[in-house]
Structure formats: C-alpha cells, structure tokens
# Entry
Amino acid sequence: MNTSEQPIHRLLSAYQTAVFAKDVDAFAALFDTEICAFDMWGDWSYQGIAAWRKTAADWLGSLGTDRVVVEFADVHVTTGSDLAFAHATVTFRAVNSDGQKLREMQNRLTWALSYRPGGWKIVHQHTSAPVDPSTGKLILKKA
# Structure
C-alpha cells in the first residue's frame, strides 16, 4: 500500500469500527452530506446524509444485542489529489454477544471519495451482488 492509499484504508477501518460499535454518528461522519448510495436493501437509492443516516440507524438498531463484524478483501484503491476510488469484496458477519457467528453475507462495494476540508469523504457508495441467471436469486457468497 502506498502512502496515498493510507487515508482510504483508515476510512475502511473506521467503517468497520463504526458498524461493530453500532455508532450511527461515526458511520455518518464517513460520508459527504450529499452522499448518493446505491445499496442492496430497501430503496433504489439514498440521496443525502439524512436518508443514508436513517438507513444506517434502522439497520444498526435492528440488531438488538447482535453486532456485525465487517471484513474487506481484494481491496483496490486509486487516489488522485482530490478524488479517490476504492472497491472491495465485503463480508458482513452477524455475531452474538459471545462472538459466535449467526449469519454472514458478502457483496461487492465501490466507493467514490472526494477530499474535503478535514479529509476524505465518501460521496458515492455502490453495493451489489451478482444474480444467478437460472433462479434470479442473489449470490451472497463469493465462489
């Protein structure tokens, strides 16, 4: 990893920490106020931090005492002076209070980031999973 990629990797780590802690404020702080998110769940898209924050609050609030461990694999980062792009395979693993795995899914993640005063912010997030053409069902585990 070159030094220009380090801030983006810190954002990935901050994302993991915020999700595990169910910290909506820390989660929302990673994103630009004008975030456009294409997520796999719910609405077709989320426009602006208020909509994205509500989605995060609903998700993290629905977990009860469970937590989510986020792991990134195959991370690729491209940085410029004020724009960066990252894509990865992400695993979301729900664990109970004893740390035992309850369920898990994978999807693809792409971030577009812009350098703002104070650091990098995610301005666009796109998550997806391939669809099995014979069944029409999402494939939530990378082969």
